[in-house]
Amino acid sequence: ASRLGLTIEEFGQLALKSTNPPRIAGRCSVFAKTDMIHLQQIATPDYDIVAGLCYALARNFKSNIGKGKTFIKPVSFQGGVAANVGMRKAFLDVLELSDGELIIPKHFASMGAIGAILVSQEGQEPQKGWIGLTQLNQYLQDHREEQASLKPLSLSHHHLAPSSPHSFNRGGDDIEDLSKEKIEAYLGLDVGSISTNLVVIDKAKRVLSKRYLMTAGRPIEAVRTGLQEIGEEIGDRVEIKGVGTTGSGRYLTADFVGADLVRNEITAQATAAIHIDPNVDTIFEIGGQDSKYISIDDGVVVDFEMNKVCAAGTGSFLEEQAEKLDVSIKGEFGTLALSAEEPVRMGERCTVFIESDLVHHQQRGAQKDDLIAGLSYSIVQNYLNRVVGDRRIGNRIFFQGGTAFNKGVVAAFEKVLDKEIIVPENHDVTGAIGVALLAMKERTWEQSSFKGFDLSRRHYEQASFECKGCPNLCLIRKVSVEGEKPLFYGSRCEKYDVIKRTKGSDMPDLFEEREKMLFAPYEGEDKLPAYAPEIGIPRILYFHEMFPFWRAFFTELGYRVILSDVTNKELIRKGVENVVSETCFPIKVSHGHVLNLLEKGIKKIFLPSIVNLKPSHPEIPNTSACPYAQSFPYAVPSSIDFKTVQVEVFQPILHFGFGREYLEKELIQFGETLHRGAKEVRRALKKAERFQAQFYQSLLNRGKEVLDQVGINDKVMVVVGRPYNSCDSGVNLEIPKKLRDLGVLPIPMDFLPLESVSPTEEIREMYWRYGQRILAAGKIIKEDPRLYAVYITNFGCGPDSFITHFFRDLSKGKPYLQLEIDEHSADAGAITRCEAFLDSLKNVGVKNVPSLRREKAKTDRTKKIYIPYMCDHSFAVAAAFKACGVDADVFPESDEETLYWGRKLTSGKECYPCILTTGDMVKLVKSPDFDHSRAAFFMPSGNGPCRFGQYHRFHRLVLDDLGFQHVPIYSPNQDETLYNDLGIMGSQFTRLGWQGIVAVDLLMKKQLETRPYEKEKGKTDQVYQETLKRVCEAILNGDNLEEVLQKSIEEFNQIELDGLGTKPLIGIVGEIFVRLNRFANENVIRKIEQFGGEAWIAPLTEWILYVNTIAKKRSFKKKSFSNLLKVFLTDYYQKKDEHHLEKIFKKHLKNFGEPKTRSIFKKAKPYIDSSFEGEAILSVGKTIDFAKRGASGIVNIMPFTCMPGTIVSTLLKRYREENNNIPILNMAYDGQEQTNTLTRLEAFMYQAKEFQNRKNNRA
Fold first, then answer.
1. How far apart are alpha carbons 245 and 437 in whole angstroms?
2. 453 part of a folded domain
3. Among 33, 220, 438, 598, which one is least packed by beta carbons within 10 Å?
4. pLDDT tens track for 920-979
5. What are residue 817's DSSP bridge partners?
6. Mean pLDDT for the stretch of residues 585-600
7. What pLDDT was estimated at residue 320?
């Protein structure tokens, strides 16, 4: 509301005026602001934007808070937002409520306080009265949180750029002298989200006039105001020879004012900076919404990056937080930041989470100046980590944009980088200056198209309407200027385009050609009888590559294949609202396609679980499918009730990567469910393979034909990605079309001969099949001077969080563009990036920079092995190493320094355990007493589909980039070869390590059963720590481990307890590292105990026994009988040792024993199949086991964006609904402690106690 200059009351009333609320992303406020800005820049009326925000919040509540739950009518709307009449209307529509079904309580803003009073009265003695404000204030002062602060800020290096022959000295005095003759001048307009800047320069490149105005949600009005003010000042003394526009509103503004040139912000900002100082090599530009990094060599842009969503809105965010803290952003903010003595440490992932941290520190009594200095640091860290990343930062650094006024941010840049930061003259309007310079430099016209300064006095109107020409239902914005043809914006097609901007109409549309090849009719379809049964196939995921196979297969079996509609906005909207958990964009779209098939009345839908795909080369051992794609058939029933609508979903489990014979058996088995015999299936399989092969060959033939016609100096953009996110026009933001409009030819990645690339080590160790293809494409692109990559990825794409690092390493010396796309409805940012990338290619040559040859480290027993500290089990593993004659030590526990290095050296999109282990490694190698020559790191590997198996490869990149190529990383693979790899450490290592892990699991279980009930606080932990030490000594010295554990039982039993077993039992499942690592999970077990619970955590041995089970299965499939024997024997002795050690605790553990792996599979089977490998099935199965054994609640712990964890949270929704609504809490961690984490945990514990009471009453 404040951004639009409205009171909250006006905001609500204004929303009621809208009849066409636009689509605004509601996932977080940063997304919403970005969409809001893009809507403003294409002339969307205020009332529509306001209504769109209301609906976005309502839809977000339904999907992210409701998570697929049924809203039982009537619904009570509580909290301060209930005062907003626009929100009331949005909830009525989104929740499909009738009048009277949305209740607004009289005291809607105070319901939480009323509830707190009622809860406090439940069965408790009356508490003492109100203590008063003075005592409350004293309490807060006494309980201020002590924590490490950041260094105080100071401006030690920074200075304003001095005037120079190149600087823009104002030329107003010269105008006075030339009153009779008009001066030749050029106008530049930079229309951004927060500010609109206008500059007029003369032919000597001097600034004659400038305006820095607030856009205030009305870009046209801001432009009119600027034109009026400049016109009044110098309009009668200048002749405008050229006009250029830049910024997110550049196209609308260009049409409105009559611009001669439109240019992206990157090029405009760089042009101004290079003119000011030809030696500038780095530009930091932070505006209200968008941030940019530009790298320059010899006056030429060689690299750039714009913020992705999680670094958006930083400038406006500072302004909003200053307002909340009652501080003026101009002057006072910077002064307070520089006066802070102990700046607080906040997160940097995005402004939403930084704000959560700010609230967290406020509630703990942090001083205002320390908060403001902490905000300055956070904005800088966010920019450096999320925008700059690992790109070069030079020594001549310009800081441009409105945020450069803020001395606190400038000082934070200097403190973090320890480099001079130059804030150039006119830094707030450099974009407008740059585009004015470009209009002068590139002028080819005699007469400018400028409509004149008096445009400010002409009447204009804005309106919007929904085009019903296709399922996209585009919201068209119409701007009518007095005396001119109306302008239209917002259409995906060119139906309403008045001004054609396309340069590529004569180029082939290879993406449309691919679409026609993919969905080409099959010859047998017209022979099917009219009564042939129908089977629905959604246009999703692997069908964007393998549809010809399935079309032929089902047609040959007598089925008529019905496709879902092409991806459109309405289909996306329904999918986004339908998902239960926060997945990647393609999975949300997939939900929409399934719903679309239901709307078509299809009663049979085909959703296979494709575990792996056909390898492109025999040397590639694994070709795993993405976990989200593989598990999609299991996840969909959590949000779509197929039984109620009487739809049969076919979910066969298929392995295309295990050879034709294996696939044939699976398809024959599937054929039985279709009532088709083996002979029919075999015939259908042959025809399907042939039809699919024809498709593949057609792609390659067309690709070769096109590339053969491309000249050596021409440029072709290879759109890199997966077919379902790069070739679906509804998902890829029509990037191929935009590239063609900009005059370059885009080509699909699979038009390249990817199979011809020899699999190098990085491809062989890349177990995701599309990852292998992306890296193969990268190799082809690097070697062909005509080809450049446009890499399309999606927010929350797990595999790409690693693949993009390897792609960048492989592409060294050749620039490429990476675009992150999700359910955003606006595409202005993508156009800017494409334009800037093509501009940069005009001046950049390709450098031949060979990738480092990274080979797998061979075991060297003379090295000292450093083991990551996941949990106390690491000490037992270190003792086993030492017992076998290999020196070993455990990493120090993770801390704030760990997070600093981890965040600095990662993109922030990797798994949290990877970020922590990266930070721990770097912290260790940078410590003064670390002996690099003797050191080696221990980081096991895996074969997917989870990301864990890529950690060691990423760590290798990081260490190499830091100059530690000589420090090896040992990464035994957790597959059927694991025990062969570990055997090199010594014949006893595996057994000793296993015994230690079992012992620590048993000790931990006893500790957690005892500690919540101890009378003497700390006694349980003391016994545990002393026993842990003795366990490690016993392993090291070959002592009797059973005696050590027996003694621990005696010591535990001597602890005085009160009320043993009376507290609600909370089962803890989830990702193994975060589940067990107290720093990573913010000591969640202690907090559960603090809130009155008893924790029971899934043991580490569960994972190892699971790995054995999978290894036996894989060995058998591969007919690797020597590995099978090795695993079988190891598994046998491990279970035998476990049984011996467990026996000691049998009479001393309330919850004795853990289920066998097969039992966990069986329990999880109704929700997920064991073919989906990894922790997901263990978490689901163990949840069910916990519930059956008396747990009153389950906490599913995961890293932020963890794929298996997200899948588990989706499946557990269905399990909960089918099992008495047992309380289940999904907790995602990323190192940013949030106030609402404790709130959620406390509320969950209240639910668990209520659940326990209900169970006890039933008993």
1. 11
2. yes
3. 598
4. 999 999 999 999 999 999 999 998 899 999 999 999 999 999 999 999 999 988 766 666
5. 790
6. 97
7. 82
> Looking at the domain assignment, is residue 547 inside a domain?
yes
Note whether residue 993 is domain-resident. no
Q: How far is CA 729 from the centre of its chain?
A: 22
**Phi, psi (5° rounding) for residue 535?**
-135, 130
**pLDDT above 60 for 825:** no
C-alpha distances in angstroms, 232 versus 428, 452, 456, 481, 965?
Answer: 22, 12, 11, 21, 65
Angle between helices 368-383 and 407-417 (to 10 degrees): 60
* Tens of pLDDT, residues 56-81: 899 888 877 887 778 899 999 999 99
Which helix (H) or strand (E) element contains residue 398?
A: strand 397-400
Q: Report residue 163's pLDDT band, with 50, 70 and 90 as the boundaries.
A: very low
Give the Cα separation of 1011 and 1058 in Å (integer).
Answer: 10
Judged against a pLDDT cut of 60, whether residue 4 lies above it is answered with: yes
Same domain, 667 and 741: no
**Shared-domain flag, residues 272 and 295:** no
Residues 22/44, Cβ–Cβ less than 8 Å = yes
Residue 402 near residue 370 (C-beta atoms within 8 A) = no
Q: Is the pLDDT of residue 1027 over 60?
A: yes
**Residue written as tokens 């100059």?**
963
The Cα–Cα gap between 570 and 1117 comes to 44
Tell me: do 693 and 714 sit in the same domain.
no
Are 1077 and 916 in contact, with CB atoms under 8 Å apart?
yes
Q: Is 87 in contact with 57 (CB distance < 8 Å)?
A: yes
Tokens standing for residue 620: 């590639």
- For residues 99 and 50, state if they share a domain: yes
Query: Which CATH number fits the domain that encloses residue 37?
Result: 3.30.420.40
The reply to whether 447 and 573 lie within a common domain is no
Query: Between 220 and 547, where is the model more confident?
Result: 547
If asked whether residues 56 and 69 sit together in one domain, one would say yes
Token pair of 786 as six digits: 């005509």
Tokens for 951?
A: 């950690």
3-state secondary structure of 595: helix
Find the angle CA(378)-CA(808)-CA(770) to the nearest 5 degrees.
110
Sign, CA dihedral 1052-1054-1058-1059, equals: positive
Q: What is the CATH number for 613?
A: 3.40.50.11890
Which of 477, 495, 494 lies closest to 486 in space, CA to CA?
A: 477
Domain coverage including residue 709: 701-841
90 Cβ contact list (under 8 Å, min separation 6) = 15, 51, 54, 55, 57, 58
Q: Residue with structure tokens 């001119």?
A: 484
732, part of any domain: yes
Dist. CA 1169–CA 782, nearest whole Å = 41
- Over pLDDT 90: what percentage of the chain? 68
Phi–psi pair at 1189, nearest 5 degrees? -105, 20
Same domain as 707, residue 693:
no
Query: 319, 341, 346, 345: which is closest to 405 by C-alpha?
Result: 319
Task: Give 678-698 pLDDT, tens digit per residue.
Answer: 999 999 999 999 999 999 999
Q: Which of 666, 697, 728 is the last residue of a domain?
A: 697
Q: Which helix or strand (DSSP H or E) is residue 989 part of?
A: helix 989-1010
Burial label for 709, CB within 10 Å (0-12, 13-18, 19+), is exposed
Cα separation of 908 and 423, whole Å? 29
From 841, 872, 891, the end of a domain falls on: 841
Domains identified in the chain, total number: 8
Burial class (CB in 10 A: 0-12, 13-18, 19+), 1024: buried
pLDDT digits (tens, 9 = 90+) for 448-484: 999 999 887 878 787 777 777 776 667 677 788 777 7
pLDDT of residue 164: 41
Beta bridge partners of 1090: none
Determine the length of the chain: 1259
pLDDT at 625: 97
As a whole number of angstroms, the distance between CA 774 and CA 540 comes to: 19
